[in-house]
Request: fold
Amino acid sequence: MKRRPLLVGNWKMHTTVLDACHLAADIAKTCLGLEDRDVLLAPPFTVLSQVAHMVAETGVLLAAQNVCWEAQGAFTGEISPLMVLDAGGAAAIVGHSERRQIFHEDNVLINKRVRGALAFGLVPILCVGETLDEREGGQTFKIIEEQIRSGLAGVVAADMVETVLAYEPVWAIGTGKTATKEQAQEVHAFIRNLVAGMYEKDVADQIRILYGGSVKPDNIDALMAQDDIDGALVGGAALNAESFERIIHFHKI
Ligand code: PGA
Reply:
């Protein structure tokens, strides 16, 4: 089945208004007329509205880097799905390994975020991935399965087809060490099979599974040539318009 490629730029905790606007404008320019793939930017919350303005009418979509499950209330430091929508966002990254590792977000909390995003019509991008110790200890599939099963608990098939999954091995994020295309494909196929078992094959065939972890202009083509890799979640290389442009315009091999 042909799935529409999705290229996501995760800006993490980078950019103030001026550089965010320049970067967004440069990226938007290169996306004009792109018909066969989706591009999504995840800038910091503080610049979402300005970036939304810069990419208006270009087809580029926006995501928040995290999201709460409540519309409003006493949740200091959180951002609600309504606020994300209001600022022009259409999606939210959830369960990024930096949230899991540095801020100790666990699978239960992450599941609340996934369901919260869906309840308000935001597309959740649920990130999963093993640490180096887990990989070396032969735990990769067990960890991924746990993260997927608990992250998606209570998500019905109709919402699942809208949900995006991202496999991001923790040892490959920001390290310059990409998983080989074979390592990535192996886990992506495992995830798709798992989703087929949890839902139906038809659902698993439709969902997009992104790879993340040191995606660069020189490895994107080989990654995108794998059967179960439907896109990329890009950190460092998404902060430079030229390198992200090359990633967006990956070559089919
Ligand atoms: P990286 O980050 O491309 O800098 O490795 C990816 C991510 O954290 O989503």
Summary: The first strand starts at residue 6 and ends at 10. DSSP finds twelve helices and eight strands in the chain.
